[in-house]
């Protein structure tokens, strides 16, 4: 007697086998589905339609959907538990990219395009129908370069020591595998794949395209080869039609690459009348501030604490990770991904936990544990003093970046109209906790979790795909890259932002 | 003396205002400036370093403690110079060519001053030529180099080679430090000393000069 359930995902045609009672949200997250409100049932971003099988409507479903929508089978994926075999349709992958808030218009074209987000840690690719804007396939995988170094500096060093070719080969074949897999699944004639657009930070851009990263290994950390790269499928050894055009989008300056250019496009930062801010809460901590007049951008080298790395019981946001922590009457309550037994803590859980401990006085404003050497959360998971210091380094870097960039822009934090959080972590972080620890000094109403803005902007690029347009001269000319440590006050502001005093 | 114990507390807790005024008063009352440095300020900074190693103190605490010590030292230094006290050594310190990180280097500079050294801070992205200039023109007998990136560490080696080529290798002791730097690397490139913490740097510097 099997207590396993089969779930068929449309429009991908993929089938998953899961234990009965699994939270659908946790599984779909691993498939690349985005949860804009962090899976709290407060929006409709993760909505699915049940085509076969049943999911009883939750309380949040009743709030978010009309009666007729519920009857038609619409449910929030984040609230759904898997009890019967199901066939479900993922609205996110069906909806046209037009459903963004940006006034992006496109001329439908024949054929297909592939957008690839070449992340330092994760590669994500989507196959897009250029006529309707619909997504026909999604793939994600770890960037194979990781074996040569977890962060961009260690990969640069590996390259300087003669490993450049290996790094290039690793990422090119990683992307090739995603593309192959999608093309096989959808069974397209090769000639209908018209464009492939890729984006990534400057180091990813250079390593993918075989450019020399040496200039990025020392002051002033600027490369001269940041422009749009046009690649040849034959040179890459990819079995594609010779009419398929392959582009790696241009970088903005320093380590800030086309991932942020794409993010600016996806959020419409460059079209706003008043300045807004885009923050990527990942290892490189990129920040862009601006509007239609001008934009400043920088990277903060925040480090991987938000992804659970260097935290002694830290882990990525997968089954077993404590993802939320609340204090009720002095007792800590946690949510664990996958409803499993807790084995560690991920970024959002870490931020919540520290916020709770600060409120309880268990951590002082300087970041010291008030009593003892560790803070138990829920057995066996605890935080050490070192863990808190790692978080302080990371949040200090980002908070300092926000403060210095707004200062250089000539505005105050309150002048910023919208705060766009890019990256998966941005979907999950609790705004109140982030504010409490001094990471995001903004009221929650201004904060918009924006998901994978790099990927979304790269998809938009598929519709602009001529070499001239893809240089994005209009946006690039608006943007100025800033080096934080050239600011006279950098050391003081960075040290200041490391503490938890500012709340 | 009670008041002087407060100087220890002021430096430990990073209270620059208090450390300045206590030092001023003590000097007016004829307390030997070296006593203030050796019996109160240096032990306070040692304790700061120890607490940083155990994660009880963090970077902000280090920086404000260094600032508090500097506030006191700024009044003491002119007195020592006036009475002809010689510094323990003359250190040319900087972050190597290609690198910008300086928080650690600044802390080491502050500690060396507290330890009785005269310090010439060359800043960041310092070329071998600038280090050599400090040796030839200012008589530095210690060159202290910092790097935070594995990609800029090789500048330490090139600087040492340049110092040799300039014919002044025997005139200086070369010390290195920074997060990716190790004792092994120091030996490999022919440096005279290495420290992985700011407090230890003073001991290493004194040892290198045989004092």
Biggest sheet strand line-up of chain A = 8-7-6-9-11-10
The coarse overall form of chain B would be: globular
Q: Can you count the beta strands of chain B? A: 5
Question: What share of residues are in beta strands of chain B?
Answer: 5-15%
Largest sheet of chain B: 5 strands, parallel
- Unreliable spans of chain B are none
Please give the alpha-carbon distance between the first and last residues of chain A: 55 Å
> What sort of overall outline of chain A do the alpha carbons produce when their principal axes are compared?
globular
Strands side by side in the biggest sheet of chain B: 2-1-3-4-5
Report the structural category of chain A.
alpha/beta
Radius of gyration of chain B equals 17 Å
Strand residues, percent of chain A: 15-25%
Radius of gyration of chain A: 22 Å
Helix content of chain A: 25-40%
Give the helix proportion of chain B (percent range). 55-70%
Write the layout of secondary structure elements.
The complex is a heterodimer of chains A (503) and B (211).
Chain A: E1 4-10, E2 14-19, H1 24-30, E3 47-52, H2 59-64, H3 67-72, E4 74-76, E5 86-90, H4 91-94, E6 112-118, E7 122-129, E8 135-142, H5 152-186, E9 193-200, H6 202-209, E10 229-231, H7 233-236, E11 245-248, H8 258-267, E12 276-280, E13 287-290, E14 295-298, E15 321-328, E16 331-336, E17 344-345, H9 347-360, E18 374-378, E19 381-384, H10 385-409, E20 419-422, H11 424-428, H12 431-436, E21 447-451, H13 453-462, H14 467-470, H15 473-478, E22 479-481, H16 490-498
Parallel strand pairs in A: 1-5, 6-9, 9-11, 12-20, 14-22, 15-17, 20-21
Antiparallel strand pairs in A: 1-2, 3-4, 3-5, 6-7, 7-8, 10-11, 12-13, 13-14, 15-16, 18-19
Chain B: H1 2-12, H2 16-28, H3 33-53, H4 59-82, E1 90-95, H5 103-114, E2 118-121, H6 128-138, E3 142-146, H7 154-165, E4 173-177, H8 183-189, E5 193-194, H9 198-208
Parallel strand pairs in B: 1-2, 1-3, 3-4, 4-5
Helix pairs in contact in B: 1-2, 1-3, 2-4, 3-4, 4-5, 5-9, 6-7
């Amino acid at each position: 007697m099997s207590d396993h359930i089969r779930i068929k995902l449309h429009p991908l045609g993929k089938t998953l086998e899961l234990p009965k009672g699994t939270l659908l949200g946790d599984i779909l997250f691993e498939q690349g589905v985005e949860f804009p409100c962090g899976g709290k049932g407060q929006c409709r971003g993760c909505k699915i339609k049940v085509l076969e099988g049943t999911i009883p409507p939750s309380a949040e479903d009743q709030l978010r959907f009309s009666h007729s929508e519920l009857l038609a089978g619409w449910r929030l994926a984040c609230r759904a538990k898997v009890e019967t075999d199901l066939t479900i349709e993922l609205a996110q992958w069906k909806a046209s990219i037009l459903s963004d808030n940006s006034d992006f218009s496109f001329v439908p074209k024949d054929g297909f395009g592939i957008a690839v987000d070449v992340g330092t840690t994760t590669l994500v690719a989507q196959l897009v129908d250029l006529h309707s804007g619909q997504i026909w396939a999604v793939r994600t995988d770890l960037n194979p370069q990781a074996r040569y170094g977890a962060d961009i500096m260690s990969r640069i060093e590996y390259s300087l020591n003669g490993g450049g070719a290996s790094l290039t080969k690793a990422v090119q074949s990683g992307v090739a595998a995603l593309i192959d897999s999608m093309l096989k699944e959808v069974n397209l004639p090769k000639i209908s794949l018209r464009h492939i657009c890729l984006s990534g930070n400057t180091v990813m851009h250079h390593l993918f395209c075989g450019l020399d990263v040496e200039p990025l290994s020392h002051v002033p950390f600027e490369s001269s080869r940041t422009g749009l790269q046009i690649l040849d499928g034959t040179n890459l050894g990819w079995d594609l039609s010779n009419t398929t055009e392959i582009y790696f989008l241009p970088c903005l300056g320093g380590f800030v690459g086309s991932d942020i250019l794409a993010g600016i496009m996806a959020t419409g930062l460059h079209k706003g009348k008043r300045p807004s801010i885009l923050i990527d809460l990942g290892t490189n901590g990129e920040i862009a501030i601006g509007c239609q007049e001008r934009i400043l951008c920088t990277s903060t080298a925040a480090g991987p604490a938000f992804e659970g790395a260097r935290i002694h019981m830290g882990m990525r946001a997968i089954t077993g990770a404590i993802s939320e922590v609340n204090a009720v009457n002095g007792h800590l309550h946690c949510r664990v991904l996958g409803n499993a037994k807790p084995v560690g803590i991920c970024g959002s859980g870490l931020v919540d936990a520290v916020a709770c401990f600060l409120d309880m006085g268990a951590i002082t404003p300087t970041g010291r544990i008030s009593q003892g050497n560790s803070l138990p959360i829920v057995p066996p998971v605890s935080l050490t003093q070192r863990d808190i210091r790692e978080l302080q380094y990371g949040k200090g870097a980002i908070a300092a970046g926000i403060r210095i960039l707004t200062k250089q822009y000539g505005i105050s934090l309150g002048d910023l109209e919208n705060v766009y959080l890019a990256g998966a972590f941005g979907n999950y972080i609790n705004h109140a906790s982030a504010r409490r620890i001094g990471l995001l000094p903004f009221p929650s109403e201004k904060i918009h979790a924006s998901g994978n803005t790099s990927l979304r902007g790269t998809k938009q690029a598929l519709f602009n795909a001529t070499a001239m347009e893809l240089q994005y001269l209009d946006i690039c000319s608006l943007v100025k890259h800033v080096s934080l440590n050239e600011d006279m006050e950098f050391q003081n502001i960075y040290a200041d932002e490391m503490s938890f005093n500012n709340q | 003396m009670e008041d002087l114990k407060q100087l220890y507390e002021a430096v430990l807790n990073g209270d620059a205002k208090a450390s300045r005024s206590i030092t001023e008063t003590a000097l007016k009352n004829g307390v030997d400036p070296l006593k203030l440095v050796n019996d109160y300020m240096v032990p306070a900074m040692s304790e700061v370093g120890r607490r940083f190693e155990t994660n009880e103190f963090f970077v902000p605490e280090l920086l404000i403690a260094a600032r508090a010590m500097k506030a006191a030292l700024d009044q003491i230094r002119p007195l020592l110079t006036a009475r002809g006290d010689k510094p323990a050594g003359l250190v040319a310190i900087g972050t190597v060519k290609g690198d910008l990180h300086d928080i650690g280097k600044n802390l080491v500079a502050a500690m060396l001053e507290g330890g009785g050294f005269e310090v010439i801070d060359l800043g960041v992205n310092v070329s071998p030529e600038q280090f050599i200039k400090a040796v030839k023109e200012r008589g530095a007998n210690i060159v202290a180099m910092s790097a935070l990136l594995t990609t800029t560490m090789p500048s330490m080696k090139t600087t040492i080679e340049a110092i040799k080529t300039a014919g002044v290798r025997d005139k200086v002791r070369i010390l290195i430090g920074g997060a990716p730097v190790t004792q092994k690397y120091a030996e490999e490139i022919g440096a005279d000393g290495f420290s992985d913490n700011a407090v230890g740097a003073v001991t290493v510097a004194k040892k290198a000069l045989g004092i």
